[in-house]
Specification:
This protein has 159 residues and is an alpha+beta fold. The protein contains four helices and six strands, in the order ααβββαβαββ. The protein has a six-stranded mixed β-sheet with strand order 1-2-3-4-6-5, sandwiched between helices. A hairpin with a 5-residue loop joins strand 1 and strand 2. The chain is globular, with a radius of gyration of 14 Å. This is Acetyltransferase.
């Protein structure tokens, strides 16, 4: 993921979360995560360079995800969790394995960093997708206010 990708990332984000109960995140969030964890932020592009999808992630601690649209001053040290902040795929590429490829690339980088577990907040119907990848819901309702009703905090071991 590069800074030049951000306009297309914002387009994909707007389409993916058009009916969400939360406001879209700003470009500053994407630039922030890229600066803090560039090896854990990925895009998939078509042969012409158009974005098919993105995955934004970073090391974090367990139990309390960062609030949406929050710029982080720093990553926690030590951090044992890989936090999947956001993943979206263009409608024309859905079902083509883009999300899985992005996930695998970032997963491998997270494991190479020594991160031992993963966490995410599933919104909308995404909990079923992440459940198929081994994520299980964990009670964290107190930390999900910015994610909207129905958001689910999910975790899994890495390796």
């Amino acid at each position: 993921m590069q800074a030049a990708d951000v306009p297309e990332i914002l387009r994909l984000q707007a389409a993916a979360y058009a009916t969400a109960a939360f406001e879209p995140e700003s470009a500053a969030v994407y630039l922030n995560r890229m600066a803090l964890a560039p090896d854990l932020c990925w895009v998939a592009a078509d042969p012409q360079g158009g974005l098919l999808g993105y995955l934004l992630s970073h090391p974090w601690h367990a139990g309390k995800p960062p609030a949406l649209d929050t710029v982080l001053a720093a990553l926690p040290r030590p951090a044992a969790h890989w936090y999947l902040h956001d993943c979206a795929v263009d409608a024309r590429a859905r079902g083509g394995g883009v999300a899985a490829a992005l996930y695998e690339a970032a997963h491998d980088a997270a494991v190479c960093r020594g991160l031992r577990a993963s966490a995410l907040v599933a919104v909308g119907q995404a909990a079923a997708y992440w459940g198929q990848r081994g994520y299980l819901p964990v009670d964290a309702h107190h930390a999900l206010d910015s994610y909207g009703e129905g958001a689910r905090y999910m975790t899994r071991a890495l390796g």
